[in-house]
Specification:
The chain is mainly α and about 375 residues long. The chain has helices spanning about 1-10, 15-85, 85-95, 100-145, 160-165, 170-175, 175-195, 205-220, 250-255, 260-275, 280-300, 315-325, 330-335, 340, 350-355, 360-370, and strands at about 200, 325. The chain is built from 16 helices and two strands. A two-stranded antiparallel ribbon has the order 1-2. About 25% of the residues are buried.
């Protein structure tokens, strides 16, 4: 029987060899497949962890941005109140002076100017800080990857000193930038309302047209010489957020406090900030915020245009508000107080609405995504 078994093996030797090779290959292929599957699962797990870590950092950064905007509202209101002081004129009017009409005309210009300037300031503050904090937030996220994912310890992106200096650039918007913006707004308001008598009656639609006329003048100017005939995507209000040219003396004054490498990083941050401010996305988001701001002012004023109680509940919200008119002299105190609703401290429904707008959130996410990507490794040449 043993001899017959040997003969059987001898006759089918090639078949046994092929079977062994096939079986061994199948086992090796199975092991290789398991290894590749495990490798893919590990990669997916790492990517999920990275995405979760980045999302957590982004969400935390947005909360910080919201808190920063809210914390700057009192300073914004204070700056506007100083540049467009109506309290002094109101006190003089209470004394019933002889130049009462002149004071009322001055109050007319200041009241409309500071309401319009409040809309501009709050919209610029919300969108500008979204740009700043998401750019620096992306850099800070990359700093957390030092020593990981082939990130070298030498690639320090932004030290605390650089972060502080970069974020301090928002002060231009609240100081020199705001002063220039208020001057432009006041000039436009004088052109539109200067000759309008105090006795003239206005409705909500008339006030909306006045706002539009002022906006056309303030936002008509273009930055720089275009000359190409093409539509400029740079929003005219950008000039009030960052200076047109960097102040070289400021860099010299702080050279002893910050290293040349850090100055290079800060300069890079400002160039990237300018690029974002000059983008079409920024232009679109800022215009949307401005439209919401002026719309909310009209909504706030609507209560003062509501008809008397003899109108029915069905007709009051429609025909009543549309047809209601008030003398300009009675509208001035209402428009003068809008700064409290626009720049008031929390809870501030108007600012909350701006912060929660989808276009603002999407824009912030795009900025953060652009600046939180790992840079290419120079040691790996293509």
């Amino acid at each position: 029987m043993l001899e017959s078994l040997k003969n059987f093996v001898r006759r089918h030797k090639k078949k046994f060899v092929v079977l062994g090779v096939v079986t061994g290959g199948a086992v090796l292929l199975w092991k290789y497949g398991e290894w590749k599957l495990q490798q893919w699962q590990d990669k997916e797990t790492d990517e999920c962890l990275v995405m979760a870590r980045r999302q957590h950092h982004f969400d935390s950064n947005q909360r910080t941005c919201n808190m920063t905007v809210l914390s700057m509202l009192p300073k914004t209101k204070e700056a506007l109140s100083l540049l467009l002081d109506s309290d002094g004129i109101i006190q003089m009017l209470k004394a019933k002076p002889e130049n009462k009409v002149d004071l009322w005309n001055d109050l007319k210009i200041i009241s409309f100017s500071r309401t319009i300037a409040s809309v501009y300031s709050t919209a610029m503050l919300v969108v500008f800080l979204r740009v700043q904090l998401n750019i620096i937030g992306g850099y800070m996220y990359l700093d957390t990857l030092l020593g990981k994912n082939e990130m070298s310890e030498e690639r320090i992106l932004a030290t605390p000193d650089v972060q502080k200096r970069y974020l301090a650039n928002v002060q231009y918007l609240l100081t020199d930038g705001m002063s220039c913006m208020v001057s432009a707004v006041r000039e436009a308001v004088e052109n539109v309302l200067g000759s309008m008598p105090l006795q003239k009656t206005l409705g909500l639609r008339d006030i909306e047209r006045l706002f539009s006329s002022v906006r056309c003048q303030v936002e008509a100017a273009k930055l720089g010489e275009q000359g190409s005939g093409m539509e400029c995507t740079i929003h005219p209000l950008v000039r009030y957020m960052v200076p047109v040219e960097e102040d070289e003396d400021q860099g010299e004054d702080t050279a002893c406090q910050i290293s040349s490498d850090q100055l290079t990083v800060n300069g890079k941050l400002m160039l990237e900030t300018r690029d974002m401010l000059e983008s079409s996305d920024f232009h679109s988001v800022l215009n949307t915020c401005l439209d919401i701001g002026f719309s909310r002012v009209l909504d706030n004023m609507a209560d003062f245009f509501r008809p008397s109680s003899d109108f029915s509940a069905e007709t009051a919200p429609t025909t009543g508000l549309i047809d209601a008119h008030l003398p300009l002299a009675k509208i001035i105190p209402v428009i003068n107080g809008q700064i409290n609703a626009l720049c008031g401290e929390t809870p501030n429904p108007y600012i909350q609405e701006l912060l929660l707008m989808k276009c603002v959130k999407d824009f912030a996410a795009n900025v953060y995504e652009a600046f939180s990507q790992l840079p290419p490794d120079p040691t790996h040449d293509p």
